[in-house]
Amino acid sequence: MVLDAGYAIGEIALVSASEVVIADLTLTRSFYHPIHITGGSAANSEKVQVYSVKVVDPGQQGIKVNASPEGFYSDQGTIACSWVELTDAGRPEVKDNCYTGGIDAHSAWGWEVRDNFIKGFWCEAGLSEHAIHFWVTGRDTLVERNVIVDCARGVGFGLGEMGNGKAREYPDDPCPGASYLGHIDGIIRNNTVWAARPELFASQAGFDSGVALEQACGAQVFHNTVISLQPPFTAMEYRWGNTSAVFKNNLMTHALKQRDGATAELAGNIVDAPVDLVVDANGGDLHLAPGSAAIDAGEVLAPGLADEDFEGDARDGSPDVGADERVR
């Protein structure tokens, strides 16, 4: 089923209840968000599932998650096995200086975003938000096995030193002493980010970053691959003083940058990698090439952190760097 709003209505699917499933639909051309999930009017909404949907050409973000006007949140949701895209036809319809992005969640706790394909979130002028973005004090997000193609920004936890001026407070105070938190804990693993389209690089903002952590306390970034055919601002970055992160076994063609007092544990990463470490960087095949220097070059992680690669292949006792574990 295809639901086409023709940019005439704000949302196609608006959810403010628990345990709702949106599946096997195509939703396109909403004025704001084809799918918008919020907290309820009297309680948090929980366990909303978005599965096997295609979201195309939103006026703002493709899938939006945020608090309700009454101040309740949406937690423990899943977005899986879906396609989210901004096409050339839809790009001129984006509102407010490129206020768009693939999946954008505010103050959401315990969401899982996996096995999605997200493409084309950039504008000729202005900087798009990320293909996958959890901020305004989100927590415990799992982002894994997503394929991100030609987006100005890939995966983001947090944004800015003070976010959008709002925050969510948690009763257990997970990061004591922090003045502001864009995101708390969470794992980003086994994602591939590929930037190749010349028009993206020629746009005002270009390709900004593959993975970005800003005021992200306790974030962990394992076994991701970021391949850019032209220089971005950075392949990965961690920023601001409340960021304390772990980056291990990530493969990237450009820099991993520390900014503005952030701290991180770094191990097993390959930065400024030549494109011939993967099979076909020009064509988007980001499997490791035979003889790649990334093979067996990673650090062994604790069980449960990233036991399999982006296709479900088991990692061995000498893990490869990046999202792919080459099966020999």
Ordered list of secondary-structure elements with their pairings:
Blueprint: E1 2-4, E2 11-15, E3 21-23, E4 26-28, E5 33-38, E6 45-46, E7 49-51, E8 54-56, E9 61-66, E10 74-75, E11 78-80, E12 83-85, E13 101-106, E14 112-114, E15 117-119, E16 132-135, E17 138-139, E18 142-144, E19 147-149, E20 153-157, E21 183-184, E22 187-189, E23 192-195, H1 198-202, E24 209-214, E25 216-222, E26 225-228, E27 236-239, E28 244-248, E29 251-252, E30 256-259, E31 263-267, E32 278-280, E33 285-288
Parallel strand pairs: 1-4, 2-5, 3-7, 4-8, 5-9, 6-10, 7-11, 8-12, 9-13, 11-14, 12-15, 13-16, 14-18, 15-19, 16-20, 17-21, 18-22, 19-23, 20-24, 21-25, 22-25, 23-26, 24-27, 25-28, 26-29, 27-30, 28-31
Antiparallel strand pairs: 32-33
Name its key features:
2% helix, mainly beta, globular
Would you kindly provide a written description of the structure presented here, covering whatever features stand out?
- The structure is a single chain.
- This protein is mainly beta and 328 residues long.
- The protein is 2% helix and 38% strand.
- The chain has one helix and 33 strands.
- The strands form five sheets. Strands 3, 7, 11, 14, 17, 18, 21, 22, 25, 28 and 31 form an eleven-stranded parallel β-sheet that branches. A nine-stranded parallel β-sheet has the order 1-4-8-12-15-19-23-26-29, with no helix packed on it. It has a nine-stranded parallel β-sheet with strand order 2-5-9-13-16-20-24-27-30, with no helix packed on it.
- Strand 32 (278-280) and strand 33 (285-288) form a beta hairpin.
- It is globular.
- The mean pLDDT is 98.
